[in-house]
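Hi there, hope your week has been kind to you so far. Do you reckon you could talk me through the fold, stretch by stretch? I've dropped the whole record in just underneath, so have a look:
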Amino acid sequence: MAHISAARIKETSTTTGTITYVLDGAVGNHDAFSERMANNDTCYYIAIDQGGAGWEWGLGTWTTGNNLARTTVKQSTNSDAAVSWAAGTRDILIFWPPIAAEQQVAANFQVIDTNIDPANAIQINGNMLVSQENLDVGLTPVDNISTYIVDQWYVTQNSGVGVYVAKRVTPAGTPPVGMIHALEVKATTADATISSEELVIIRQPIEGNRAAGLGFGATGARSVTIGFWVYATEAGEMAVSITNGAFSRSYVTEVTIAAAVTWEFHTVIIPGDVTGTWDDDTDLGMNVTFCFMSGTSFQGTADTWEGAIDIATDSTFNFFDTNDNLVQIGLVSIIAGSWVLTEETNRHFQRSFGEELLLSQRYWEKSWDHDIAVGAVSAFSGGYDVVIPDTTVLLRFSTDYSTQKRVIPTLLEYDFSGNSGVCFREGANKASSIAVTGEKNFTIQIDDTTLAGEIAWQWTADARL
């Protein structure tokens, strides 16, 4: 008898009630328990219902015949007791618990799951570190227009009388350790009465290439775990949802913000969708949406996949019914598979600034330094300056992006005074144009052929979803 820890062990079970699990065999790209365990070996396991009906984790004992006894249930959706399963299928995995096993705690040693790696996270800029375009400047989203606030996060509102300001902020109150920035939406003019088409959401659109590994739209689609911190000036029910790129499939789940003006950590597990169309290329693969106000047109049934654009339920609270009400979110993780995330393990799925910047630049990039605003008057802050022999010929210069873009981007060139559509040429602003553009580089053409010995320019490239 031994205690076993192993990676990539996963089977299914259709066992009902609270009895010992009968394991039904390994899931693709995983091993069976029998390949790592002998009779009466123990392990930490987690059982997660594929239909989203609940989960439990604890200490299990494996016996010959491929059975796993639920020796000690540690935590569950049944008040931390064994879940009495109804008919259905559960995923059963060997699990690294959110705290070290008792015998290892005594030895002051903590088990770390080697799969806890930010490289495995689907989200981009979940820590809100990167804000190339807007820095910390507040924007007022226009009705039904997706307004990017920080890289890869946009706010959409359609609220009759409500007026909102969205921006990256220093977190309010007492934020969790490691949270440097948060994304905030604040009602400068409240909207106390919601019509059917109104909403206020914070959303991350996800490229099909990043979501392809989930296998949505086919049998065996993987679950998605979303962990996040949230702060609001009122307590109430918010909603978290996943929709496909065509907005024809959606799954919404409810999250209760229990205390006002308090940072809270929440995690939800959304089962994979085995039907519908889910892009797996450079188009929009899926959206992860945080909803803080919704009219009836966008409300659906909680915890079930639907053929609709549902991002809320009829329990979703209006967090903007009073002037100056606000919400903030930060340290968001979006992870393939079913996880019991803790505050600590959630941090392990956050990346460094440099990593997030490079991922973000696939969708939007500027030549200015990160902390310099687009259009700012700048000498050579990240821009391009070429000294050439005096010439009057038509000139072209090729520029490489920091990383390959999602698609051929929309480009805009600037002079060093922040004027768009022109370049700086020998002490004056001169007409220029983008002559050739691709996903890896572009060529700028200096259309003015007057004598010059110096040419300089800045640029932005937009390949957002």
Q: What stands out?
A: Residues 138 and 167 are 5 Å apart (CA to CA). The chain has a mean pLDDT of 89. The two ends are 53 Å apart (CA to CA).
